[in-house]
Specification:
The protein is α+β, with helices and mostly antiparallel strands. It is built from twelve helices and 16 strands.
């Protein structure tokens, strides 16, 4: 993905607009893409610094520099570089240093230092060839890592990826994102909602008066910490939105530039969806902590079965809730849902409380981190749902106790 410094945009009043890629620029972008991709393929097995030097050697005009730098970054992002050395480079350096120190100590004033003799001696000690010592002595440095593999893409696909990456980079500076989904079929958005849960994006979903849905997502600059990490997760939602939503409009509030000027930024669904997918998002599974939770819960040997949830709980006029897990009793058919809110905000927890108090009929256990300073007593026992406040790691045993408590 691109970084903000590679974005070419202009301010128009209180809005930010990306510079459009015209037909001439698109042709040039595809030419550069073809050249850069060809270099990546031809440099398999070579050091990173050699590939980078080759990419940088391609002539571009000053006006094309940001475009070229962006395409080069996307190409390098598709490369897998690894250290390649039969012996730890640090061990090679240590032996060379010690051997050179001993050799210098034995030199007379008239003698000269024999570099080749030191290298040959260390090569023999490590069962390597002298030229291998030269090659591997700094193999652990980033620029010396070798290109092991490259994820293929065609030039047209790389340019399309570049355009999407520009929009993703802008979202790194968002404080709030509103997505208007025009499709009235709620179940068609399951992949999108599941990805939001997997990425741990703090969000609310409500029905829109027009019949669609309105998704409000807190941006990275609404947080006090982990801004970069959260921003990357928000940016990762864009390709999923493009893939699984037909008609949508995204409006982001940005804090742009060094002075963090408040600007708005809009992205709309393409008028025509491409028949060729250049990048297909991975299906969202469950976060590692929930996978571990399920494993530990099943080892308790209870009568409850647990699996990833697909249901969307809808309370018309109030909002929607998409839990992470569903617990089931095979014989009675009883169900209870489970939503983890450890990474959310206090405001989001209160919105869930309001949802329950407004009449959410389904039974939901909301797992809330103790750092949010919310008491389990905010939901009285008469409510079908409950809060489970945990510190550190969620306890399957305590969740089972709540399930058994009817």
């Amino acid at each position: 993905m691109l970084t903000v410094d590679l974005v070419t945009a202009r301010r128009r009043g209180d809005t930010l607009q990306l510079r459009k890629i015209d037909a001439r620029t698109r042709v040039r972008a595809q030419e550069l893409s073809e050249t850069y991709l060809g270099m990546a393929r031809s440099h398999l097995g070579e050091a990173r610094e050699i590939l980078v030097a080759g990419l940088d050697s391609v002539h571009v005009s000053p006006r094309e520099k940001k475009l070229a730098d962006g395409l080069k970054k996307l190409v390098l992002d598709r490369c897998v570089f690894e250290m390649s050395s039969p012996v730890e480079p640090s061990e090679i350096r240590l032996k060379l240093f010690r051997r050179a120190s001993r050799s210098r100590a034995l030199l007379s004033a008239a003698d000269g230092f024999d570099r080749d003799e030191v290298i040959q001696a260390v090569a023999k000690e490590l069962s390597l060839e002298p030229q291998q010592i030269e090659r591997f002595v700094f193999a652990d440095l980033r620029d010396s890592h070798r290109l092991e593999s490259f994820k293929e893409i065609d030039p047209e696909g790389l340019v399309a990826l570049y355009e999407r990456s520009l929009r993703q980079a802008v979202l790194l500076k968002a404080s709030k994102v509103i997505i208007a989904l025009s499709d009235t079929n709620l179940t068609s958005y399951r992949p999108l909602f599941r990805r939001m849960k997997f990425l741990r994006l703090m969000h609310t979903v409500k029905r829109d008066p027009s019949g669609g849905f309105r998704v409000a997502i807190d941006g990275p600059f609404s947080l006090f910490s982990s801004v970069t990490k959260y921003g990357l997760k928000l940016a990762m939602l864009l390709p999923v939105l493009e893939e699984h939503a037909h008609a949508w409009r995204l409006e982001a509030t940005l804090l742009w530039g060094k002075d963090r000027t408040r600007l708005s930024f809009t992205v709309e669904a393409p008028k025509r969806r491409s028949q060729t997918r250049h990048e297909e998002p991975d299906p969202a599974g469950l976060p590692d902590e929930l996978v571990a939770f399920i494993d530990k819960f099943e080892k308790l040997g209870s009568s409850w079965q647990v699996e990833q949830n697909d249901a969307i709980l809808d309370l018309p006029g109030i909002g929607l809730c998409i839990p992470d897990l569903v617990f089931m009793q095979p014989l009675s058919g009883e169900k209870a849902y489970f939503e983890v809110m450890g990474y959310w905000s206090r405001d989001a927890v209160w919105k869930r409380v309001e949802l329950v108090e407004a009449g959410l009929a389904q039974r939901v256990i909301f797992a809330v981190s103790s750092r949010l300073r919310v008491s389990e007593d905010v939901l009285p026992e008469r409510c079908p749902s409950s809060l489970y406040v945990y510190k550190g790691v969620m306890s399957p045993r305590r969740v089972l106790d709540r399930l058994e408590k009817r």
